[in-house]
Write a structure and sequence with these properties.
307 residues; alpha/beta; five-stranded parallel β-sheet; four-stranded parallel β-sheet; 9 strands; globular; binds phosphoric acid mono(formamide)ester
């Protein structure tokens, strides 16, 4: 069971924890829930401390915090005193000294969020740490899957792309495995981590996209994390798109009602055909909307536990 004061990983999440968080998020998806939340954390301060670029995560955490009545401050690495040599810990301690109730951290180093837990009095929420985890992304993905499929048990979820460098793949494998879904990982061999099946209790490794999407209920495509690559992982982008990109030829192999997901940002024409990204099968923008409700639920839980 997670400690509810910090949300850095889904490794300790039980089925009940996931159900609780998703149920709580669902209350914020209604006008009544939004109205009730308006002053829930009035007077508290949340700091979004982002050391990597972000559109969806940063904006939805900001919206979520504001809709809970909190003051939300955004700090990016380029505009912070880390450029003058200040450490992450000193930065966090200074924010805590200004009574930041919660710090949402995005950082290129795996383990950065866990590193801050217990070292500062603020609640810590992981907004993505290196190739480790992106817990609220997996929770919003689960919220979206539940909305469209109504269940997790027995679902086949194909997660395809740069698995080795993907914190989204890792958090999803943990959550979906806990909830009883089959997870199929598919990527070029150079982008499949060793011991990939250790990443989740129900993970299967599939070397070909044709096999991975066969009969799938959900296909989640991932971008190539070029910022984390140290060398060439495949011959050309064109060849990657032809072999590991999802297009009209392969979508016919999924279940007829399969949904297409992507955490964003999408590299159109590389991992996903633009026509599919914009099709009725795509729930990509639903995922983005789910992010507000799930992040409201996560912030409400950690700030309620820490006050
Ligand atoms: N899915 C996701 O983390 O997107 P951003 O990098 O835009 O936050």
């Amino acid at each position: 069971m997670w400690d509810r004061r910090n949300l850095t990983s889904l490794a300790s999440f039980t089925r009940d924890d996931v159900a609780d968080l998703l149920g709580h998020a669902a209350t914020f998806a209604t006008p009544e829930g939004q109205a009730k939340a308006r002053n829930a954390h009035k007077g508290k301060t949340i700091v979004n401390l982002f050391f990597e670029s972000s559109t969806r995560t940063r904006v939805s955490f900001e919206l979520a915090g504001k809709r809970l009545g909190a003051d939300v401050i955004n700090v990016s690495s380029s505009g912070s005193s880390t450029t003058k040599g200040e450490t992450l810990l000193d930065t966090a301690k200074n924010l805590a000294a200004m009574r930041a109730e919660c710090i949402v951290l995005r950082h290129p180093a795996s383990g950065a969020a866990d590193f801050l837990v217990g070292r500062v009095p603020s609640a810590i929420v992981n907004g993505g740490d290196g190739a480790h985890e992106h817990p609220t992304q997996a929770l919003l993905d689960a919220f979206t899957i539940q909305k469209h499929k109504g269940r997790f048990d027995g679902l086949v979820v194909a997660i395809c792309g740069d698995i080795a460098h993907s914190r989204v793949a890792r958090s999803n494998a943990l959550l979906l495995g806990t909830m009883g879904a089959e997870v199929r990982f598919c990527s070029p061999g150079t982008m499949m981590p060793p011991c990939a099946t250790d990443l989740g209790p129900t993970v299967k490794v599939m070397p070909r996209l044709e096999g991975a999407v066969e009969g799938a209920d959900v296909v989640m495509m991932l971008r190539i994390q070029t910022e984390r690559l140290s060398g060439a992982m495949f011959p050309t982008t064109r060849e990657y798109a032809r072999t590991f990109g999802l297009g009209s030829r392969l979508i016919g192999r999924t279940k007829p009602d399969a949904i297409i997901m992507h955490p964003g940002p999408v590299n159109r024409g590389v991992e996903l055909d633009p026509t599919l990204a914009d099709s009725d099968r795509s729930v990509i923008l639903d995922q983005v909307e789910s992010g507000i409700y799930v992040r409201m639920a996560a912030l409400d839980r950690v700030m309620s536990a820490s006050s």
